Amino acid sequence: MSDVVATPRAKGEFARFVDRFLEDRVAVFGLGLITLIVLLAVFAPLIAPQNPYDLAKVDIMDSRQPPGSKSMDGFTMWLGSDGVGRDLWSGILYGLRISLMVGLLSGLIAATIGLCIGLIAAYFGGRIENVIMRIVDLQLSLPSVLVALILVALLGKGVDKIIIALIVVQWAYYARTVRGSALVERRKEYVEAARSLGLSHTRTMLKHILPNCLAPVIVIATVQTAHAISLEATLSFLGVGLPQTEPSLGVLISNGFQYMLSGKYWISFFPGVALLLTIVGINLVGDRLRDVLNPRLEK
Amino acid sequence: MTLTRRSLALTAALLAGGLGLPAVSAVAQELKIGLSSEPSSADPHFHNLTPNNAVARHVFEPLIFMDEFQRLGFGLAQSWKVLDDLTWEFKLKANVKFHDGSPFTADDVIFTMNRVPNVPQSPAPKTSYVRGKTFEKVDDLTIRVKTAKPEPLMLNHLAQIEIMSAKAAANVTTQDLNAGKGTVGTGPYQFVEFVPGDRYVVKANAEHWGGKPRWERVTFRFLKSDPTRVAALLSGDVDIIENVPTADAARLSKDARVTVSSALSNRIIYLHMDRHREDSPFIKAKDGSAIKNPLNDLRVRKALSMALNRQAIVERIMENEAVSTGQLLPDTYAGTSKKIKIPAYDVDGARKLLTEAGLLPAGFKLTIHGPNGRYTNDTKIIEAVAQMFTRIGIETTVETLPPAVFFTRASTGGPNRTPEFSMILAGWSAGTGEPSDTLKALLGTFNPQAGTGAANRGRFSNAKMDELLAKALATVNDQQRNALLAEATEVAMEDVGIIPIFFPKNTWAAKKGLKVTARTDEYTLAMSVAR
Amino acid sequence: MLAFIIRRFAQALFVVVAMVVIVFFGTNVVGDPVWMMVPGDATQEQVEEVRRAFGFDQPVYVQFFRFLADIAQGDFGRSYVHGGSAIRLILDRMPATLELAVVALIFAVIIGLPLGLFAGLKPDHPASRAIMAGSILGFSLPTFWVGLMLIMFFAVMLGWLPATGRGPVTTFLGIETSLHTLKGWQHIALPALNLALLKISLVIRLARSGTREASLQDYVKFARAKGLSPRRIVGVHILKNIMIPIVTVLGLEFGSLVAFSVVTETIFAWPGMGKLLLESIQRLDRPLVVAYVMVVVLLFVTINLIVDILYSALDPRVRLAGKSE
User: Fold this and answer.
1) Among partner residues B234, B245, B384, which is closest to A60 by beta-carbon distance?
2) Domain boundaries, given as residue ranges, for chain A
3) Contact C266, A238 (CB under 8 A)
4) Would the CB atoms of C278 and A233 count as touching at under 8 Å?
5) CATH topology classification for A2-298
């Protein structure tokens, strides 16, 4: 819960930072895992034997086939198929695209909004800061599942809507973190100097304060992205997330849920494993980042 | 309170059974049932909903009973006579007692019929069953019903109304009934408690006119999630579950610990097509430009019906927990047609018809809409239908919506509160156990004043069918009416007013040693469970 | 102090009003609740009748003013589906949810604390690495997935514990509970464990980092140099030091347990208010959703307030006024 993390002192430390990161084999494994997953998602159309969204390619005669079966089109479905005959391997590759897209896009937008608001709060202080931080506190006092659940219920299903909901539940974390570290920076001499030199507010904020707040933001971003992906899966499971016709990993799991007890484990097991690997990978990297970027705990 | 009562009952049973008997026999007097949907109230007239009606049938009884095939029989009525087209007379069973010991008389019937339309805040009252009927007491055990116009469905309607006690239920509210105040009927079981979100409990009424019921105590547990319900059965939490998920039915029927029973339901799953617009919003040429609504062409509608591989949907999606169909109700029901065949699966024939209609080789784009989570496997069924349409050259996409959103938009989402979509998947159950209701609502010309076409979300209209149906609805003679209904169905199906797909099965699973008589109306009743 | 409490409740009131307005107008955009109320074979006139009876034929703002007028008379709305007072329905279900959340919290501490302490004291021990890897897994596993696995394994395959529902209920000191019988504990074990999973990982991590930090402190080094037994060092010095952050965080996390119970209650058919919320959302039972929001926001605010006050009592360095950070 240490959201405020001290930043590396000098820019030349980047190389040292990389070295330190790579010291931990588990973290390297996590990084490799994520890289692989991202590559799989990006190149899904080239790798997947089937486009699972193209109804001309999917055949219900292929439905619920166990791993290793041959499809009607002649390719082998190594992970089996789901309830409407989608090849699960292809479904997972395409599902990863959606899950990652939702997680990254919502994280990126939330981070941008949070950064701006946090900077503004820290830089201007006074009344503005007070009002902003009050809103942040209020937002953070409500659990994210609940806020997202109610928002998605009101907005309806769809990728765009779930992204909006995820942005709403995430931005405050960034705002609080950024304000915390920006406050520390603001009190330093170089900022005072920049201000007395008559540099504009925007320039001071972006050029001088922002770069020094990035480290904690990166740590928060990894945790939040994993959280967002998991939250999307949860909402989809509850039936208020993404539509079933172009499934994310969460929807695939939830679709397979009904087959769980009847022995057709693969329909929700493999997407579950894919989701788990993704989140574990991100969390491993995030964990190491937190250790590396937080010198308090080392030594 | 519950605890003491239960442990007392257990102790009593153990004592009565003697020391040597294992505890199992004592416990076996109690039946635990896992329901897939929860009743919203213990007031039988509050919400006309399957789970509400089903639990109410244990405590309350209507004048007319429906058996497991929805055939009519005597309930609290001993006999009936049709005096003329507008007057019916019912003799009531004598010596029937309410749970509080008071006798059942004509006064209770009159009280009930007056109560039905006057339940405050009722989300779905049973008012339509008593509308247009005047109930008169002739003597303590005779009532007469006068109707404004001939009412052939009199018995079907009375079968939906549970009789309450004029004495015990006078001035009680729905909340009182939920709490057990005035929840007094003549049924085989007495109300014990209703805990919303958790359970509904009844106990045996030893004084029941039909003899002492089989179970000492029946607990209905509400287990909405499919895997959870199955898990509860397998782990022994409950003895019986209703609505066995299609994914588990096959495996459960092979499981030595479980017996499975099923009946064809009175529900039809079908496609409705936009027939009221020249330019249908979700049908476009492949390049996205507007085209004339092809669904107004009979050849296209026939082609779509032929393109459906119903058997594949039944086998691959419903896992054989359904039976494919070409008409509105299974032909074991009265008023159905023996002549209607299931349209044969014929891709080439469908393509040929589309070519004749000038739609191939160009093809067109279509979006099918449907609810998500309203009917068993609904989204998957639509995806399968879309696959099949895509194969005959119609580029089909699927959009499923939460039921509340779907039905709002499908009914009144368009301009001037017209249906919004071009093609929808929906379901309809014939609660009355014959097809007149279905024909009237799904296929009758849309006319709110006349009450026809209430669920006609495609605005299909066929004058000949309307005429046959109107005639049937004014015919009290069963045989003549059924012949007219069968003919009306044939006309509507020949004109492809809807595309019927299948009837799902209602499936129950029970612990070995218990036998559930499956019902077509989806009611789960302790009375249907035998050892 | 009093001014602080009053200000917090004023803020809470603001949140409640904002959420209620959003939910009230939002549910109206989503769909027409009448379609979730009437039976599938309802005729148009039945639909219209119900619509009139519930006032859905009026514009939303008219409905909203009616709602406000009812509140002024102490009526917070009646559930469309169940008919009873919406607040009453929520409050009736609240004990079950709170019971589940409290037991989950207890699980989190009794499982997480020893593991975290161990990992903090012996950071290089293989077991510590396994614990930390496990905690990452605990963070990453989606709750709903674990819930089903628990049912599959413990209820279906092994048959040790019941899969669903709550044990028999009694009232003890005015609190409704199912924990007075073994059966009650058997019923609560799986759902509470499922709900506790995330928090176990959280406690492990808090305990570990707290322990590591504390063992570097001078007083611990001093104690060690003085030759105090490791047991005493851990029991007195370290534990005392790490309990404050753990208690604080868990207090704040209690709200998230209540929120996450929506998922757990749905899987385990636990008759709490989270399950009711999800059902109400699906049925567009607006009064129930609004009532849930009101009750839960007030609950969270109260919890946060208690945590803040306790925290300031435990640690005099914290001033109550400027809260953030």
Assistant:
1) B384
2) 2-298
3) yes
4) no
5) MetI-like fold (1.10.3720)
